[in-house]
Structures are given as C-alpha cells and as structure tokens.
Amino acid sequence: LALWGILMTSSICLRQTDLKALIAYSSVSHMGLVTAAIIVQTPWGLTGAMTLMIAHGLTSSALFALANTNYQRTHTPTLLLVRSLQLIFPLMSTWWLLTNLTNMAMPPTINLLGELFIISTLFNWSSPTIVITGIGTLITATYSLYMFLMTQRGSISTQFRLLSPTHTREHLILILHLLPLGLLIMKPALISGLFT
Questions:
Q1: What's this model's pTM, rounded to 2 decimal places?
Q2: Average pLDDT, the chain
Q3: Measured at the alpha carbon of residue 50, what is the angle toward residues 48 and 54, in degrees to the nearest 5?
Q4: Rounded Cα distance, 148 and 127, in Å
C-alpha cells in the first residue's frame, strides 16, 4: 500500500498547476518510501528511513522556501504564470537547480543514499517491488524537472520585468538547508549508523 501510494502521489505531482501543492505532494510521495522501509523492519530499512527523513526534511523545506520567495515577488503560486525567473534571478535559479537535483536523489546527495538503502531493503523483501520503486523514482525525476523548467525557463512575462531583487537572508536560508545536505554525504554515519 505504501508503494502504491508513491505511484499515486507522484502521478498527482505531474498534473499540478500550483507550485506549493506540487511540493506538498512530492513530500507525501517520499514519505511512502519511508513508510515502506519502516514496515519491513530491517536494519537497512530503518537506516534508509532515518536517512531519507532527515534528507527530505531539509530538501522539502528548501523547496518551500524557494516557492515562498517566488510567491513574495509574483503573488501567484500558479506554475504557468511564474515562468522564466532564471532571467531575472540567476542565483536563485541555481538554488532551484540544486534543490531539485537533491529532491530527485541525484548523486552525490544523502537522499540517494537513503533511497538506495530503502530500495535494497524492499528488493530483498520482495523482488517485484523493484518495478514499483523504479517507476516511482522515474516519476520523481520527471516532476522535479517539470517543476524546475516551469519556474525557471520560458519567455519572460511583461508583468515580471520590475520585480524586487533577492535578499541576503533568502540566500542564507537556502545555504543553511543545502550545506548540511552536502556535509552529511561526507560523513553519512552520523545519521545512517544508528541502526546498523
């Protein structure tokens, strides 16, 4: 049921037009993996669940911070209306890219380590689960790229030509989210060694 929930919520993400709803459903999808790992009750599963919960907590929070930054300037969460922000905020676009890559568990992020632990655990428990987790991972990559492209690329709207610039505090918030994610992969035993 947890794996089926991953497929359903990931599929819902592909149809979202609201940025904050897309990020929220993305969190539900990732927590389906955590739930499946906890139910299996193996040391690797619990390690993966703990790792992914911490990693996703930082990633999802960073995505919501980015969505709020967009909302404060554009006053709309609709994806079709907030396009081409890369041309106006190139540094913020870099934060979007890094956070989305982390969200889809690209190497060398700690999210990948957590997902590998969980997928290995589920595969050892029942080999057909590799199909469901594989499809879920593919859909996650798809909606993460969709979110990045919809917010950052495209032709600029005339209503967004005079937006207020980003502030240092906004960049600091994102550094405080992404720096721990980068440092945790240097020493993953801090969070993954709890159950092994």
A1: 0.90
A2: 89
A3: 115
A4: 33
- Exposure letters 109-127 (e unless 16+ CB within 10 A, then b): bbbbbbbbbbbbbbeeeee
Q: What pLDDT shows up at residue 79?
A: 82
Q: 88: which residues sit within 8 A by CB, 6+ positions away?
A: 156, 160, 161, 163
Provide the terminal-to-terminal Cα distance of the chain, rounded to the nearest Å: 26
Closest CA to 113 of 182, 40, 63, 27: 182
Q: Which residues are within 8 A (CB) of 162 and not within 5 positions of it... i.e. 6 or more apart?
A: none
CA 116 to chain centroid, in Å, comes to 16
Domain boundaries of the chain, sorted by first residue: 1-190
Predicted local confidence at residue 89, as pLDDT: 84
Residues of the chain with pLDDT under 50: 196
